[in-house]
């Protein structure tokens, strides 16, 4: 997107524009705008569900405006009730601070912090931790009607299950964040999920009431899959940006498993591919769905942005081996390290000089079969391979040609069950 492209037009084409306040388009067209989005540090990592607002900030910057990423070091001590059916567990201050630092590092993969419209990173603990309760209630609280707050979706949805005064007050704190950034940094736009609309407009109202200023809000849709499930949730739980929580390979596979019905939408949301390329991939999905061209482009692009091009390349290698039956001899040295984290992995001692390893023993040691008897039956059926070579009862011993990268053996039982052996 060029700097002259309208932010709202770009978001609308990509399906990422849900609603905006009156006058937002005119404000964005009038000059450089500073717009912010908040991130809740209740965990030490963002997850893929957070990528929708992150990409909103990316598009804001590409349109020539200045993004502000606000880490909620202060509000994270309370927790946002939006979208929650029960009270959040409150984290100790030191945990919130540690999580905030980790999130700041992850956001740096998406936003450019250099140049005239370089991104800014702020932490609301800077002003919230210094608040005086009496002054806050007198100066800010008087501008909020309890009747109006009770009508907000984030509060109304919790009336039956109950909501504490702590979480009830979150709206005031988020609105105050907007006011503080408006005063300190000239921020006049807030971006967030559609479930945040009530909190966001509370902020624009507070700026108008206290300072007579003009500010706007822009919301992005809450993303669901074609099957109706919440985006980013899997049987294993959340898909994290932290490689220690979700490996680059698992992250890559999450995108590869996208439903054909979702692939085009996900390309629009999470990549910066131009319109003609995305539409060409839409056509490829319709005409050649078995090739999964859109999913390949999506998985590589997002993984490279989050984990780097090398990690994306390695994930692509491992994926091609395990799911497309690629040639194991073409694996790079880095791919073996990644593979060892994703499939059963064992280390064995090198055989004595003049002898060879028995593959039957290796399959048992790696846990791919329960017994030598099972391994021998599979040998007779042609169901075992070592480094791509199909074994028989007469050719079950490992040869020099079977070693990959000098020390590895890749075992496969049937079509999909793999194990990696390192010979020391």
Automatic annotation (TrEMBL):
Top-level EC class: ligase
Binding site for L-tyrosine: 36, 170, 174
Binding locations of ATP: 233
Motif 'HIGH' region: chain residues: 41-50
InterPro entries given in the database record: aa-tRNA-synth_I_CS, aa-tRNA-synth_Ic, Rossmann-like_a/b/a_fold, S4_RNA-bd_sf, SYY-like_C, Tyr-tRNA-ligase, Tyr-tRNA-ligase_bac-type, Tyr-tRNA-ligase_bac_1
Function (record text): Catalyzes the attachment of tyrosine to tRNA(Tyr) in a two-step reaction: tyrosine is first activated by ATP to form Tyr-AMP and then transferred to the acceptor end of tRNA(Tyr).
Entry similarity comment: Belongs to the class-I aminoacyl-tRNA synthetase family. TyrS type 1 subfamily.
Annotated protein name in UniProt: Tyrosine--tRNA ligase
Gene from which the chain derives: tyrS
